[in-house]
Specification:
0% strand; 225 residues; mainly alpha; disordered N terminus
């Protein structure tokens, strides 16, 4: 009885919880890389040329379901070090959300590819360039909501799309926090390379969940039975 109690306390202590979080982040990151590696290799080979924007969007298609699976696994993570199954949770979320995420992730990528290509090839300047950038940022904040809602709830794609638009202004703190994540990811990409945000994907997913706490709570309270 004593040994069982001691083991239970070990699994639930502060140090054990921190270790459980680190372990979960590492496993989720490895599985994210595993499920996106073909596209990531393509991105590395493409380089930063404006004509490669459509191909880059194509390479990013696997990232949507992988991010959704990461969000699902992190949301359902266990705090007990002796009861960790992040890999199983990742694959469960991947299978459950693959189609739902793809229905909105792929159109978003196509939309960004169109905006990016127009900005790069047409040499847009002034107010038109600023407007295009604002639209791209808004669309990215929208897809962040899409990923969270699709990963944790079972709604039709069109309902997810509407809810994601609704929460852009309904939860300004979440939108601001996600905007900060976007700036951070863009900064890391410019200063270092595209590989750095990818290697921190599980950390970004964890921060996205943290930013979206009010969104998750309201969806659960108001829009689920």
């Amino acid at each position: 009885m004593t040994d069982t109690t001691a083991g239970h306390r070990f699994g639930e202590g502060p140090l054990a919880r921190a270790s459980a979080l680190v372990y979960t982040l590492l496993v989720v990151e490895l599985l994210f890389l595993l499920t996106t590696v073909p596209g990531l290799i393509g991105l590395v080979l493409l380089g930063r040329d404006a004509t490669n924007i459509p191909l880059a969007a194509l390479c990013l298609i696997p990232a949507g379901p992988a991010l959704s699976a990461a969000l699902y696994a992190l949301h359902h993570r266990r705090l007990d070090l002796t009861d960790l199954h992040p890999g199983a949770a990742f694959w469960r979320g991947y299978r459950a959300n693959l189609r739902g995420v793809a229905k909105l992730w792929i159109p978003w990528l196509l939309w960004l590819a169109v905006i990016g290509s127009n900005l790069a090839t047409a040499g847009a300047r002034g107010w038109w360039a600023a407007l295009s950038v604002l639209i791209a940022v808004a669309a990215t904040l929208w897809i962040a909501n899409v990923l969270v809602i699709t990963s944790l709830f079972a709604f039709r794609a069109r309902d997810v799309a509407r809810l994601s638009v609704y929460f852009l202004t309904r939860s300004p703190r979440a939108s601001l926090g996600n905007a900060c994540l976007l700036v951070l990811a863009a900064g890391l990409t410019l200063v270092a390379s595209e590989a750095l945000p990818v290697l921190l994907a599980s950390v970004f997913a964890s921060m996205l969940l943290l930013n979206s706490r009010t969104v998750i709570a309201e969806v659960r309270e108001r829009f689920t039975a």
